[in-house]
Amino acid sequence: MSSSSDPIIVDNPYKRLEITLNPDGSLTRNADRYPNTSATLDPDQPIPVLSKDITFNQANHTWARIFLPRQQALDTSSSAKKLPLIVYYHAGGFIHCSAASTIFHVFCSNMALELQAIIVSVDYRLAPEHRLPAAYDDAMDALHGIKTTQEEWLKRYADFATCILMGTSSGGNMAYQAGLRAAKEADDLKPLKIQGLILHQPFFGGSKKVESELRLVNDPILAPGVSDLLWELALPIGADSDHEYCNPAAGEGPKHLEKLASLGWRVLVTGCDGDPLIDRQVGLVKLMEEKGVKVVSHFSAGDHHGVDIMKPAKAEGLFLVLKDFISSASAATL
């Protein structure tokens, strides 16, 4: 039994995640847990958002799904309005899902329509078969692929001067880490010009539990015991949860924010107080403020981790917040 001083959940996180760890270190996943949806690129289809898949790195089997509002695709004039470009990294605790997962296909479709933006949802290698920093490498690989792309939708419709990196949960962690890397490579990424980061309920951790993790120790979505296992599977072998991939306040993590601050990129952190991770997200906002980053936050009452993905109707409020942020980030560079 756990004591009151160590109130960490005692059920089986492997069962929660529907995974089995194999002797070779790979995972057997429940293939039915996250169904997939195929891309639809035919403009004659009566759907509001079109999608297509493109390959970035054949050797690593990485690719992305592009989402484009259908009305934009029907405008074939040379003066067609360019749309903000959102590079999106999906959730899944670094071990689950892909850009084809139905929950993220629906989320990105709705986001493209509501924000009138073109979304590039990046597929990346999963842990533990490919531990971090593999996913971060793939995140950057995608940015360099977009920079040099000959893909028609991106060349015709995407405003490369208004690029936002965004991710949900573990994808929010990826957007943060990719943002730190991209800040150091900003000149090499041109004509792609990143204006900011959107960290949507970002996934971070640390060896010492924060109050919200203790308060929500029996959370049905992301109990601390589940988070601990996800980090154990994702971090480099031998690393603990105070590695800077997991804990942005650890090691050289805070120093990496200086370059991002100097570029004037804006950062939005969103979350809710029904999420065990909220205190870590609030802590990240404070850390960025201390380092001079132009950061804003939007934390709501109630709800739970992943609510905007699991309940599409809930995302409508989020999209209003994102629309305002993207407008402000774009205006700041004019």
Explain this structure to me?
With 334 residues, this protein is α/β, with parallel strands linked by helices. The chain is 36% helix and 20% strand. The strands form two sheets. The chain has an eight-stranded mixed beta sheet with strand order 3-4-6-5-7-8-9-10, sandwiched between helices. A two-stranded antiparallel ribbon has the order 1-2. Helix 3 packs across helix 12 and helix 4 (134-147) crosses helix 6. The protein starts with 12 loop residues before the first helix and ends with a helix. The model is unreliable at 1-5 (pLDDT under 50).
Give the key terms.
globular; 10 strands; 8-stranded mixed beta sheet; alpha/beta; two-stranded antiparallel sheet; disordered N terminus
The proportion of residues forming helix, as a percent range, comes to: 25-40%
For the secondary structure, the number of strands is: 10
Based on CA atoms alone, the radius of gyration comes out at 19 Å
Distance from first to last alpha carbon: 59 Å
Class per helix and strand makeup? alpha/beta
The pLDDT mean sits at 94
| Major sheet strand order | 3-4-6-5-7-8-9-10
How many helices? Answer: 12
Give the low-confidence spans.
Answer: 1-5
Report the order of strands and helices: HEEEEHEHEHHEHEHHHEHEHH
Assembly level: single chain
Largest sheet: 8 strands, mixed
Strand content: 15-25%
Shape: globular
Nutshell version of this structure?
The chain is built from 12 helices and 10 strands.
SSE map:
Elements: H1 13-17, E1 19-21, E2 27-29, E3 49-57, E4 62-69, H2 70-74, E5 83-89, H3 102-115, E6 118-122, H4 134-147, H5 152-157, E7 158-168, H6 170-184, E8 194-200, H7 211-215, H8 224-234, H9 253-263, E9 266-272, H10 278-290, E10 294-300, H11 307-310, H12 315-331
Parallel strand pairs: 5-6, 5-7, 7-8, 8-9, 9-10
Antiparallel strand pairs: 1-2, 3-4, 4-6
